[in-house]
TrEMBL record:
Domain of life: Bacteria
Name under which the protein is recorded: Type I restriction-modification enzyme M subunit
Gene3D superfamilies, per the entry: Vaccinia Virus protein VP39 (3.40.50.150)
InterPro entries the UniProt entry points to: SAM-dependent_MTases_sf (IPR029063)
Length: 183
C-alpha cells in the first residue's frame, strides 16, 4: 500500500500517535520525499509517499510479513518531479529544443521517479508483437533508436527501490522478477 502524506505527519510531535499506529499495523517499506512542485499548482505542501506492507503471519491472508522490531527502510528524495514552480509540466527536449515524445506520441516528462527508457522499451516490445507491416515497424524502429540515443540515463527512485526489495528478499516480489521485467 502507498499513501501520500504531508511531510509534517512524519515530523510533528503531535502526530506521534499516527506513526505508532502505522508501525504497530504495518511494516514501513519506504519513504519517498516528493519534490515541492509535485502537486502544484493545487498545493504548496511538501509531501512524501509512505509505502507499507501489513504485518501478516498467516500465508492464507496474503504475502507473509511477520512482525519485526528492527528492519531496514528505503529512503529516497525526488529531485525532479516534472513540474516547475508554477505547476507547469517540464518536458524532456532534444538538441533542437523540441519536446521528446514516446512511441505513442505522448510528451515525455522530465522526472526521476521511474525510467522512461524502460517505458519506451516496453512500448517497442508491444509494437513488435502487434504490428506486421515492415514499413510501419521500420518507422517505429527509427523513432525507438533515436529516443534511446537521446534519453538521459540516470538512476531512478523506482529502480533503486526494486534493488532494495531484491536485496531484502521481500515476499511481494514474484520469484525471478526484477525491476527490468515488471509489468
Amino acid at each position: 500500500m502507498a499513501i501520500v502524506l504531508p511531510q509534517g505527519r512524519f515530523n510533528n510531535l503531535t502526530d506521534e500517535y499516527l506513526r505508532r499506529y502505522i508501525g504497530a499495523h504495518a511494516r514501513i517499506l519506504a519513504v519517498v520525499g516528493l519534490e515541492i512542485n509535485t502537486f502544484k499548482p493545487h498545493t504548496n505542501t511538501k509531501t512524501s509517499v509512505l509505502f507499507l506492507q501489513k504485518w501478516n503471519d498467516n500465508e492464507d491472508y496474503g504475502p507473509l510479513c511477520p512482525y519485526k522490531e528492527d528492519y531496514p527502510i528505503f529512503f529516497a528524495s525526488s529531485q525532479k518531479c516534472g513540474k516547475d514552480s508554477t505547476g507547469e509540466y517540464v518536458f524532456l527536449k532534444d538538441e533542437t529544443d523540441q519536446v521528446l515524445r514516446d512511441l505513442h506520441g505522448h510528451p515525455i516528462v522530465d522526472h526521476d521517479l521511474y525510467s522512461e527508457r524502460l517505458v519506451i522499451q516496453k512500448q517497442w516490445e508491444r509494437i513488435l508483437n502487434s504490428i506486421q507491416d515492415p514499413e510501419i515497424i521500420a518507422k517505429y524502429n527509427k523513432a525507438y533508436t533515436r529516443l534511446l540515443e537521446i534519453l538521459p540515463q540516470h538512476p531512478t527512485i523506482a529502480e533503486a527501490f526494486m534493488d532494495f526489495v531484491k536485496d531484502e528478499g521481500f515476499s511481494f516480489l514474484p520469484e525471478g522478477q526484477s525491476h527490468g521485467n515488471l509489468e
